[in-house]
Amino acid sequence: MWYFLALGAALFALGLFGVITRRNTIGILMSLELMFNAANINFVTFNKCIQGGSMAGQLFAVFIVVIAAAEATVGLAIVLLVYRNWRGIGSDHYNVMKW
Amino acid sequence: MIPVQPEVGVAFWMLAFVIIMSGAMVVSLRNIFHCALCLIICLSAVAGIFILLEAEFLAAAQVLIYVGAVSILIIFAVMLTSNLAVQKIVQTNENALVAFVICLVFMGGTCALVDATHVWRYTAEALPANNTLEIGRQLMTDYMLPFEVVSILLIAALIGAIMLAREEKT
């Protein structure tokens, strides 16, 4: 079980690195998907090793997949909107918000 | 009581290698389109990990939703903003070194924490044999409310995305 959790931690660290360092907003969204997947690996591992009988971990993972899909849809719509207005999608284009 | 342990064999190491390598390429390649293709490889390999962990329904959902839908959405977004996709500009900002150290510390800390924990209450009980049947049954009984809430969230997100991305002609 240790190896699966370590794989999840490594994937999460990679996603964190991407979120911190990317200039491109689509790159940030892709790194976020990596982090969601790391969380899913951990949930499924715990469901198999710790829980037994119940499927709560896998159900959580299913909900995470759905919410990640919703997040990607809205995020990419915002990216398209920003691109249409400023002809660029670097994260420094988001400096014109009201607050 | 014999704890159920997932098998760590050749398949796991191959999938882990593919996940880590393609994940590293997702966060480090210059061309954002290549990053999207590497993301597809990475997500497919995660589906393989789910099969190793006896979560067949989740593996199928992963392939359908992530590889089939989210990746295509990302590739569409890359192509619609395509004057950036062909540029070979540096895609990372000046935080790279600090971020690398932070992530190494995070990963090392997490692995040490997992290693130091000896109180896992391992189960001897195997997962239900028919994975999809059990997930469907629990979705319709114990998890009815979250199921409905997530449906409303999904449709709200879709309508919101359409409203955001639509051209304002009139």
Structural key phrases:
heterodimer, A: 99 residues, mainly alpha, Helix Hairpins, 3 helices, 79% helix, elongated, B: 170 residues, Four Helix Bundle (Hemerythrin (Met), subunit A), 2 domains, 6 helices, globular
Please give the CATH class of the largest domain in chain B: Mainly Alpha
Major sheet size, sense and barrel closure of chain B = none
Question: Quick one: overall form of chain A?
Answer: elongated
For the biggest sheet of chain A, the summary is: none
How many individual β-strands of chain B? 0
Helix content of chain B: 55-70%
Q: What proportion of the residues of chain A form beta strands (DSSP E)?
A: under 5%
Name the CATH homologous superfamily of the largest domain in chain B. Answer: NADH-ubiquinone/plastoquinone oxidoreductase chain 6, subunit NuoJ
Describe this structure as you would to a colleague.
- The complex is a heterodimer of chains A (99) and B (170).
- Chain A is mostly helical and 99 residues long.
- Chain A has a single domain, classed as Orthogonal Bundle (Helix Hairpins), CATH 1.10.287.
- Chain A has three helices and no strands.
- Chain A is elongated and about 50 Å long.
- The termini of chain A are far apart.
- The relative contact order of chain A is 0.14.
- The mean pLDDT of chain A is 85.
- Chain B is mainly α and 170 residues long.
- Chain B folds into two domains: 83 residues, Up-down Bundle (Four Helix Bundle (Hemerythrin (Met), subunit A)); 42 residues.
- Helices cover 69% and strands 0% of the residues of chain B.
- Chain B has six helices and no strands.
- In chain B, helix 1 packs antiparallel against helix 2 and helix 2 packs antiparallel against helix 3.
- In chain B, 24% of the residues are buried.
- The model of chain B has no long low-confidence stretch (mean pLDDT 83).
- At the A-B interface, helix 1, helix 2 and helix 3 of A face helix 1, helix 2, helix 3, helix 4 and helix 5 of B.
